[in-house]
Design a protein that fits this description.
Helix content is about 15%, strand content about 25%. It is α/β, with parallel strands linked by helices and about 260 residues long. The strands form two sheets. A seven-stranded mixed beta sheet has the order 4-1-2-3-5-6-7, covered by helices on one side. It has a six-stranded mixed beta sheet with strand order 8-9-10-11-12-13, with helices on one face. The chain starts with a strand and ends in a 17-residue tail after the last strand.
Length: about 260
């Protein structure tokens, strides 16, 4: 049974009320990327998280510099995707597949480090590639190395909640469209005795989903389709209510799937 492990590439400090309706005080959100060690495909990454190309690269564009200044972040190099791979015995060149759930800067900062990888993304992003806010973070040949998430055969999702798309050819990892947050945003379902749904950025916190405490302004202004966003939240909540595990990219709490580096 394929299961992921997740590294935390950075902490982002924000007001809790921005990500959880009724929240008070501040919270340190995580910025995860994941690794699947597949028996046939070897190391498969799930996004690549935050990195210095966002925060300190000398030739960053002015928009990227403004973005980095507006979003306070503390990088965690001990849990970069490169460190995650090394701790599992892999080099960047060993990675032949990166699942790219969407193209926001905090999910693609290390994509250029994997020259042999192909990128699985939802085809809905293809028409927006020229309009990505920070195209400089993508490999120059990203479009040529991009594969369609929906090209995999359809597979029934757990609990009768529709169908997903077979990403690795063996039904072990299913792409689940979770639209609204960003063009082509999708999550990953890992079937099994207790299925896991990695809901990525459907919400920043599990509590917002489980307790129906989705934040309003200003966060709701950042989504590309509010109705689809709320539909995606309802889907993830139904998955959890049926008995599935859920996790998100930015939840501040440690999950059972979070990796601890060797020697720590």
């Amino acid at each position: 049974m394929t299961r992921p492990v997740f590294a935390n590439t950075a902490f982002v400090s924000t007001w809790l009320r921005y990500v959880l309706r009724g929240g008070r005080g501040r919270v340190n959100l995580r910025v995860r990327c994941g690794l699947i060690v597949h028996p046939d495909l070897g190391p498969v990454l799930i996004d690549t998280g935050y990195g210095p190309r966002v925060t300190s690269a000398p030739r960053r564009s002015l928009p990227l510099r403004i973005y980095a200044a507006a979003v306070p972040v503390q990088l965690n190099p001990l849990e970069s995707p490169l460190a995650l791979l090394a701790d599992h015995g892999f080099l960047p060149g060993d990675v032949k597949r990166v699942i790219v759930t969407h193209l926001h800067a905090d999910h693609v900062a290390y994509l250029r480090d994997f020259p042999n990888a192909r990128f699985t993304s939802d085809g809905l992003v293809k028409g927006t590639l020229r309009h990505v806010a920070f195209n400089e973070l993508l490999p120059d040949d990203f479009a040529e190395r991009q594969d369609e998430m929906r090209a995999g055969g359809k597979v029934d999702l757990p609990f009768g909640l529709g169908q997903g798309f077979d990403l690795l050819g063996d039904g072990s990892v299913l792409g689940v469209p979770l639209l609204g947050h960003a063009p082509g945003h999708f999550g990953l379902c890992f079937p099994g005795e207790q299925p896991l749904l990695y809901a990525v950025d459907t919400q920043w916190m599990r509590t917002a989903i489980l307790e129906d405490r989705v934040p309003g302004l200003p966060l709701s202004l950042s989504v590309v389709d509010k109705a689809a966003w709320l539909d995606s939240v309802a889907f993830v909540r139904a998955f959890a209510a049926a008995g599935g595990e859920i996790m998100t990219c930015h939840d501040p709490d440690v999950s059972p799937y979070d990796w601890t580096p060797s020697g720590v």
